[in-house]
From TrEMBL:
Signal peptide: none annotated. Residues 15-174 form the Glycosyltransferase subfamily 4-like N-terminal domain. It comes from Brevibacillus choshinensis. Residues 186-351 form the Glycosyl transferase family domain. This is Glycosyltransferase. InterPro entries: Glyco_trans_1, Glyco_trans_4-like_N, Glycosyltransferase_grp1.
């Protein structure tokens, strides 16, 4: 049997959940069955990680952000690689790939990682990207939704159910299951962040953008500190356009001595090992990659009851859930979890079982490969 040639297309200007998903997927395709390459519009950290993993990368960073010459660059890449499947991720990649592939008779598959309404704060930007996405859907063959929540949105927008497959993002759990290094990581990271070894540490990992609801988390932490004294700490791992506003909020609330901004990190497993609780405060989430990572690391979670999170974080079973934007409810959940070691232990055990049964990279890869075979003419 000849190898299946698969070409992924993504902007790749940042390294978020979609990029991690592609890296996981293409790194675990069986080499004897699949030949894969990735087209990135930017030559950045993601492209470097792909190269380190031995994946062929084509970059189109010589063109401007919405340079129509991208169409020619993409079409050249398509004709050179001769894929049997073109698999796109993100509005820009979807839009240009659908236009560039016309006439090539290659099935286009799009993975939907998020809900566009929450990705673009500006109404004008949202209107433009919605038009780009919906106006080219006629040339797309099939969709992978990474949660039933996102599949429901697609159906509401008129995409036929037969053209949608729900396949959860899978991840390599091994970096988060290195139990022998947990105590060492905990001590080392706390020394780096100047946090006492015995302090209760809340933490999160997120892009600092509006949809992540980080001001709500800071406000909830302030309420918790006021109610319980100053025995807890909060670490925010990540970066983005909201960082300055968050730093100002922390100063205004007088929390500088108990809140740490850790910046963008690549040692997320070590960071998670330092946390006593992972707090997710998003207003929406297609799935919630960082929550799954925390659950795999046996860190108890508190999460917004939104989107795909509802499909695996069950209240007082695999985590605590709160309504998005409610800082008082979030503070109450943080206090409840901090004060009950028994609850933390019970939830951690059930959460790990859920992750190992639903979110492995092997299960995801198997399902996506089966879908590829189904779509080939």
């Amino acid at each position: 049997m000849s190898k299946l040639r698969v070409l992924h297309v993504i902007g790749g200007g940042e390294f978020g959940g979609a990029e991690q998903h592609i890296l996981n997927l293409v790194s675990t395709f069986p080499a004897a069955e699949v030949e894969v390459a990735v087209v990135c519009f930017y030559d950045s950290l993601f492209a470097s990680k792909l190269r380190q993993a031995g994946i062929t990368v084509v970059t189109l960073d010589q063109f401007g952000r919405f340079d129509l010459r991208l169409l020619r660059g993409l079409r050249d890449a398509f004709q050179s690689f001769q894929p049997a499947i073109i698999h796109t991720h993100g509005v820009k990649a979807n839009f240009f790939s659908r236009l560039a592939s016309r006439g090539l008779h290659v099935p286009l598959l799009t993975t939907v990682h998020s809900f566009l309404r929450y990705d673009y704060a500006s109404p004008l930007a949202y209107a433009i990207v919605s038009m780009m996405e919906r106006g080219t859907r006629q040339w797309n063959r099939h969709y992978i939704a990474i949660s039933e929540a996102l599949a429901s949105i697609l159906r509401d927008q008129g995409v036929p159910g037969r053209d949608i497959s729900v396949i959860y993002n899978g991840m390599d759990l091994s970096p988060y299951r290195q139990t022998q290094s947990r105590e060492e990581d905990r001590s080392r990271m706390r020394r780096e962040w100047d946090i006492p070894e015995d302090a209760f540490l809340f933490g999160t990992v997120a892009r600092f953008v509006p949809v992540k609801g980080l001001p709500v988390l800071v406000d909830a932490f302030a309420k918790l500190q006021k109610e319980t004294g100053s025995s807890s700490y909060l670490v925010l791992v990540g970066d983005g356009p909201e960082r300055e506003g968050l730093e100002n909020q922390v100063k205004q609330l007088g929390l500088e001595s108990h809140v740490r901004f850790a910046g963008f990190r690549q040692d997320i497993p070590a960071c998670l090992n330092a946390f006593d609780c992972f707090v997710h405060s998003s207003f929406y989430e297609g799935l919630g990659y960082t929550i799954i990572e925390a659950m795999a690391s046996e860190v108890p979670v508190i999460a917004s009851h939104v989107g795909g999170v509802k499909e695996f974080v069950f209240h007082e079973q695999t985590g605590l859930v709160v309504e998005p934007g409610d800082s008082s409810a979030l503070a109450l959940a943080m206090r409840q979890l901090k004060e009950s070691a028994q609850l933390r232990e019970a939830m951690v055990k059930r959460a790990l079982e859920k992750v190992e049964n639903s979110f492995t990279i092997e299960l995801m890869t198997e399902k996506i490969l089966a879908l590829y075979r189904k779509l080939i003419p």
